[in-house]
Task: structure prediction
Amino acid sequence: MDFVDFTAGSDDNDRRLDKVIRIFASNLPLTEIYKAIRKGLIKVNDKKSSQSAHVKKGDKISIAKFLIQDKKEENSTSTPLEKLPPVIFQNKDLIIFNKPYNLLVQPNGTDEISLNTIVQAFYEQKKDHDSISFKTGPLHRLDKKTSGLICFSWSLDGAKWFTKNIIDHKITKKYRGIIQGNLQKEEIWEDYISKEFEKDKKFQTVKIQKKEQTNAFTKVTPLAHGKYNDTEITYVEFDIKTGKTHQIRAQSSFHGYPLLGDTAYKAKKQNMEREYFLHAYELCFPPNELALPPKITCPLSKDFGDLVLKTCDIKNFSL
Result:
C-alpha cells in the first residue's frame, strides 16, 4: 500500500493525532479517521498509533495515499489570489491586511468569495511554515461593509496570544467614520446591546436595550464637520473598548448620529457608492514577545478620503 509522509511542525506539537488529521484531511469524516488509525492506515514514525496519542514536532506521519486524494483535488481548486488585500504587517506569528469595502471575512454559505478563503490559499502557497494541521484564520470580526485592519493568525502561538489579549481588552481598536449630524464634542457611549436579532428583516440588526448593566463601550471624537448634499455630517474617530456585533452602527444610531447612509440603522437614504463609511484604521498592542509594534495604522481608501476632503473642513490632512 502506498503511503504519503509528512513531518509534524512546531504548530502540530502536542496535538492529539486525530485532531491533527481532522484538520489536515478535512474531507474525512471523524469516524473514518478513527477507523484509519485503528487499521494502521495512518501511522506515526512507521508504527500504528492510537487516536489519542500526542504528536511531537519532527514526527513522521504516514497516511495511506487513497485517504488524501480528495485533499489534492481540494487544494487544486483555483482561488483568486489576485484579490488578496494589501498586507500592512507580517511576521512569523501574525499577518494584518487592509480589508477593502464589500468583502466578506468569513464564508456565508454562498458562492461569494471570502477573505478567509483567499488568505488560507495564500498561506498554503507560502513555504514559510512547517505545520500540517495549522490553518490560518481571522482573529477578530470586521463587517463586510467595513474596511480596514483585520488580523489573521500565521502560527498557533500568534493565534493564542492575540485571542487572549483581545479577551483581556489589552488590544485596542480605533475606527474612522462619517456620521449623520453635527457632533460638537467628545462623547462616551455605554449601552447594553441585545444578542437578539430582528427576525422580520431580510438583514440582521441588533438592538440596544435600557438595562442597568452595560456591555458596549465606545468613545466618539469629532475630527471635522461638513455637509453631504443637504445633510450635516461629522467625520469622527471611534475608540471601542468592546467588540459587540454592529456595536458602532447600533450605538451611533441610538445616540442620534447614525453612520451616513446606514439605512439599516435609521439613517437618511443617500445616493452613495457605499452603504456607509466605516474604516478600522488603528490597532494598538501591549508589550509583547511577538515583535509587534505598539501601534499599526492603515490609511483610508481613496474614495473614503476623497469624500472627507470634499465635504469636511479638514485642516490637518493626516486625519
